[in-house]
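User: I'm putting together a small comparison set for a docking exercise, and I want a reference complex before I start. The sequence is below, and the ligand is nicotinamide-adenine-dinucleotide. Could you produce the 3D structure with the ligand included, as structure tokens?
Assistant: Of course. I'll restate your input first, then give the structure tokens for the complex.
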Amino acid sequence: MRALVTGGAGFLGSHLCERLLSEGAEVICLDNFYSGNRANIRHLMSHPNFEVIRHDVVEPILLEVDRIFHLACPASPVHYQYNPVKTIKTSVMGTINMLGLAKRVKARILLTSTSEVYGNPQQHPQKESYWGNVNPIGVRSCYDEGKRVAECLMMDYHRQNKVDVRIARVFNTYGPRMAVNDGRVVSNFCVAALRGEELVIYGDGSQTRSFAYVDDIIDGLVRLMAVSDFVGPVNLGCPDEFTMQDLARMVLEITGSRAKVTFGEARSDDPERRKPDVSLARERLGWEPRTALRDGLVRTVEHFRTVLSLTRT
Ligand code: NAD
Ligand code: UDP
């Protein structure tokens, strides 16, 4: 089995490459290193079944593969809002290129879509049947609408060209190998707490998210790719829901930090609450998240402790 992982040098992609290699697959990691990092895959470089290609998915490419895990796209609001036009090009043109490749070489292709397709949800928890509440012209639209178009493309290639597709809607995921400058809340809070700097909550901190540990999500992606008769979309996330105030408290407790918590300006179009209904994943994939937030945070804090101590010396 030869697998292509686009965005393979990123946070989720690098864990996925590692998992696929451990299962005996040949893995081609394709990345333009926009938000990914060589350090994430350095330990895999000497593996005989691992190959890296620097390439931008906005440009077509021809490769002989059996499976395409299409992850390439910046996922942190800080990164995807830095160059929004590029972000939407990556989602739209990148997905067209990967679907064209899948069609040509008859590969099965999986898209990592996102809970952001639900926008600021008016249904809670969110089921896959919910169509969402997305602002089409806001600062998050380049990402949210980009992924909505990507899902549409997946379904149209499936219906029109019989491409074998899989769509995962991934909810907020955290864990070791998140970049120090990733900008998402878990990494920001862990890094600030360890440095003794302020943890800045955007808005009043009553907004909620459901955080899934990286290993659980990778397991869900691998299962979705393996099932023979299920296209999705399917939610992959952890149904435990926390406010940002809860998260800040937990990070301070785990790190033993005495850093202050302060409140900054609320982000534009920031979803007020989010929590997946994962019954479909349970039923069709036999999948369930296993890692409690506290346990996953302990491992994540350890990761940042190591990275920060290395960068200090
Ligand atoms: P990440 O930013 O760490 O990884 C994205 C990777 O894609 C990076 O290595 C980046 O360099 C690469 N990339 C970006 N644009 C590219 C392009 N044009 N061509 C080639 N490579 C490109 O983010 P992540 O958290 O690992 O997210 C991976 C995927 O999962 C994304 O598709 C994201 O939308 C999706 N997702 C992630 C989360 C999460 O919480 N981590 C939640 C929902 C969905
Ligand atoms: N957030 C925060 N402080 C930070 C980073 C994020 O309070 O330093 C908040 C943000 O406003 C949002 C939540 O944490 O309500 C999750 O943000 P993140 O960027 O991690 O993911 P997303 O908004 O894409 O779910």
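The chain has nine helices and 13 strands. The first helix runs from residue 11 to 22.
User: Thanks, that's exactly what I needed.
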